[in-house]
């Protein structure tokens, strides 16, 4: 690529033809607003709080904490480029960088690297990690310290220190001996000796000639150190193959010895290091053994898109049914809240059994309900979990909209159900709904995984390992952690499985409603149609969203959820208004039921089995439950006749009539409790029954028995004996036992824990850029001082009298002033103002920094100076 082609890819002021900036601040000052906005979006920590000027912005961008965050967001090739600059000269030329990345042969050696390098360098410049023209590229100091080799932190490139760094502690005599053994003339000082030795090791021709004379055993030693780590151990009397290398400086004593003393460790006099220049010669100039300029492709097998959408829709319906079943099970109050917060292991197991799923899957549904605001703790004395009022509102929504509520909550939640059952940093167990489950990277990883799936052809199901490999390229691992222990890898694995459970994907492929949920707008380019389930499909960029890592705005999210609901709605099964009654006292629901029918059946019958069809079983207890809820036998007969596509079986009719005939014949009220019945023979039967002894009944009248148990215990005891009593009020009316739905007070869903400062929106960026530009103008504009001469560009101090006089003069002349100002919080800033009025200890002025008229107390103005005549 020619310099002209490269310059078209570079930000303003960075090409070799532009005036070379002398600092990062000058480099930022040369950028336009579009470039600065891109920097602040990519590194939002730089804008929190808004810097006063570009110098402060540059200082903040070069801090270690900010640089670490920026490096962690680089892809593998951009990071490799930064690592190469860390071991290059400071400053380095573009050609030197190209040699480190592509090898000494340049474009002919690796044209892919040559083509990709300008883009990677542009990324580093955009992120303010690199500044300077092509002939003077500089990596910010904090990045160089993080990536360059040192005894404490080995370089990711596997390179060691330079010759000069490694030989810094050697005696001058020993250095001259090395020059003589290497065939170089001796010098008068160590500095020129190191320069001579470095020149030899950096000269490819002379270095090749030196190594041609090396014994094969010595070359074998170098080959073991060339790709790192560059350190080795030698004995006090090294073997001849090592002595040959030590004599010529191809192995030098390691600076680790002095570093060990500084850190309180015993020195390692036998440690040697391969100098960086020697390693680069043996590597043919490459900084890395393997450069990865292109992202690895995501392998995928093809399925029909219609099948994927149908599978995902079926799973979406199952997700809705599972959440409803979970919260219905907790309708009258769920498990208790642990003292430390969260759900106990025993309660999680019970929930898993009730939902007929594994415990990790049960934890996912519980956490999803919590993230969607449908579940919370009630906050009462005996604190327990229960549905929120939002759950009742959610139930009234159409099924597709209910699903989008769940899916949107899942996409943005930072709580990570996959961690349930693990241990935290203090070795405490992590429980469902408990503390310690938030991982700020979770939403970004979920979104990135789904974006990768959206980049495949429709119906393509990716190989999981290829997805993880791609994600590791986009966010390389730092340190020595294996891939299996990396949190982002585990988050990606959980995202794939959770997307399948939720119905975002079907058979591993992203569904149409899942694409819409991401805010993707499909192109009209037809996707390649697979011919079989084993076909491999390449990555296909058929959706356009320019910055997939950025979250959707609130408006975009609402529009995306609406599109997803419209796509999903036709695929969900229509609720049915009928069941099939069978002679064995069961009813079969061949599909989802309309809500009034389903609610009534839940009272009148017990669920026996689930699946594609739900089987309900009628029992005396279930019929009595319906009668207790206020239904009569005629109501139940009419209900079944209306909603059954088959005639009501005779056994079921007999069961209803038999239970209804006995229901309410006995009446239980509060005395502690009493039992009355018009049939005194029935009361005699109860008194004679040995099972009634625990109830401690005694006769008060021929038709009334008293009990020392409360009414609820008396009701349960009589029902256990086979009777069908009914409760009554103090007025003698039958009490209708309706199910009590326990609800928490209004609750808001848990707020996601952000990963650093949020990405600024357009309004904030515009205001911040205006403030930074104005502050920079105030700090760099030439001015005339009214007090003592300024030193180092610092605002001079002026007395109160001088400040007042200068302000009053500026009101008369209309001149602008440069002031120092300290606000009520004690924060100092510099401003350019045009005074309009001075009155009562205040100055009213047009503030060029804020672009508005403001009033300032004069006692908070620390200094004032007139601007130069040619400014503003």
Q: Could you provide a short overview of the structure?
A:
The chain has 872 residues and is of the alpha+beta class. The protein has 35 helices and 26 strands. This is Helicase-associated domain-containing protein.
Written overview of the protein:
This protein has 872 residues and is α+β, with helices and mostly antiparallel strands. It folds into six domains: 3-147, no CATH class; 163-282, no CATH class; 306-459 and 481-571, no CATH class; 580-662, no CATH class; 667-727; 781-867, SH3 type barrels (Roll), CATH 2.30.30.100. It is 43% helix and 12% strand. It contains 35 helices and 26 strands. The strands form eight sheets. The chain has a six-stranded antiparallel β-sheet with strand order 21-26-22-23-24-25. It has a five-stranded mixed β-sheet with strand order 18-19-17-16-20, covered by helices on one side. Strands 12-13-15-14 form a four-stranded antiparallel β-sheet. Strand 23 and strand 24 (842-847) form a beta hairpin. The longest helix has 25 residues, at 305-329. The protein is elongated, with a radius of gyration of 39 Å. The model is unreliable at 1-13, 257-268, 480-484, 521-549 and 785-793 (pLDDT under 50).
Label this structure with key terms:
five-stranded mixed β-sheet; disordered N terminus; 6 domains
